[in-house]
Amino acid sequence: MADLTGAVWHKSTRSGGNGGDCVEVALNLPDVVAVRDTKNRDGSTLTFTHAEWAAFLAGVRDGEFDL
Known about the structure:
By secondary structure, this protein is an alpha+beta fold. Helix content is 18%, strand content 24%. The protein has a domain at 20-61. The longest helix is centred in the C-terminal third of the chain and has 12 residues, at 50-61.
């Protein structure tokens, strides 16, 4: 499990302003990118390598996940 002690969390600019669908990302960690639910900060956290995160963002930009 990754050490998230020094994580600096940033709320996604795509998160809804109504208190729902909120995601926070920590990009400052040396080995992982961490993602958590803003409404449940003490809950589970997803972690990805920086390469995995970059691939995910590229897929989003390319429309890979569009419905």
